[in-house]
Design goal:
Layout lengths: L8 H14 L5 E2 L2 E9 L20 E9 L4 H7 L9 E2 L4 E2 L18 H8 L23 E4 L11 E4 L4 E5 L4 E6 L9 E8 L13 H5 L14 E3 L5 E4 L6 E6 L10 E7 L14 E8 L5 E12 L2 H10 L43 H17 L4 H16 L1
Parallel strand pairs: 8-16
Antiparallel strand pairs: 1-2, 2-3, 4-5, 6-9, 7-8, 9-14, 10-13, 10-15, 11-14, 12-13, 15-16
Amino acid sequence: MSQDLPLSQDSFSRIWNLIEEADNIGAATNGEQQYTNIASRLTDYAYSSDQNDQIASTSTIEVMRYSLPTQDTIAELFSGSGLDQIPTTVLTDESLELPTSSIDLHQNIQIEPPSSDDHQAANDVGPSSVGPSIPSNTEYHGEYEFQLGFENPKKETKSANWTYSKDLKKLYVSLFKSCPIKYKTITAPPAGSLIRAMPIFMKPEYVQEPVTRCVNHAQGKETNENHEAPTHLVRCEHKLAQYHTAPLTERESVVIPYESPHVGSDWVTNLYQFMCYSSCSGGLNRRNVQVIFTLEARTGEVLGRSTVEVRICACPGRDRRAEERDPTAKPTTGTKRGAKVMLGAELVSVGPGKKKRDDELFTLQIHGRDNYEHLCKIRDCLELAHFLPQNVIDDFKAKRGQLNTQ
């Protein structure tokens, strides 16, 4: 349709109503799908302040409507309906491709494919956007050469609060005691970097379980009063320490900001505490534990990684020497005595089993007559015990037991 300028309000309303009526894309009529194609021609308009000037310009709008069965595609319609001048669009899985032929208009119709971000956001399920559930314990120094360091006490004794074995690469530390752990890098990482310490179980059958404190220590008031993370095994005495719990894996970790070393030093030292024994039932439960220290950027990218095995015990010096002598031996929680000493008249055996009688003699000097006579009685009992038959000893024990019950 065409009309000389200037356009009146009535003409504009008629054109607008025509477009609104035609723009009925997607409406279905009698099982057929309707489509509308609207194109416009470019025109130049000339305006003049003089009302006597007769300047005319035209504006043209072309509206083409067509319909096709719902099972057909647009490409089939364009190829078989004789509308060769109308461009065909081919829809693929990746994008919408525009054809090489087009209708003879000054402005071609442009079809933009749907945004791939919307499709990706709809299909991006949680697990595909998070890291592995099992953290890596592989040493990775990275471009900043992130490393851990440990210093043993100047005077190592059994009562030392911590000790580190270079041969076993294992840290032995007392419960609730502050242990200095240091780190260094050859160059400073990006601003806002963090140091994270996260404990994990070392054996494959337990590695997916989060490491937490036992119930007794986690609920005790001695170390948990006004503390924000009572269940965390590893704590740091840094004033800016933050305690995190992963929402999916429930792994607990403590995070501190990266700090540059002092002038003349390469290392930065922080004090860590370990809040549960390795032998605590319901917690570590004698399972080997490893602490992963990672250098992370503000975005969460791991820039470096270092690990250390930790044993939390009552006597770090003793356990370290015992495991260095025999790394395969299981640590003991106490000293088992082989000798069995029974007081009273039931002093029958000394040692884990009966010893063979020998003829070797010993001399013992005793101060005081009474002490000598008492020891002589003990000697006589020991001598007679070797000659008594076993049935006599059993009868004596039975009678002795009856007297004790009475």
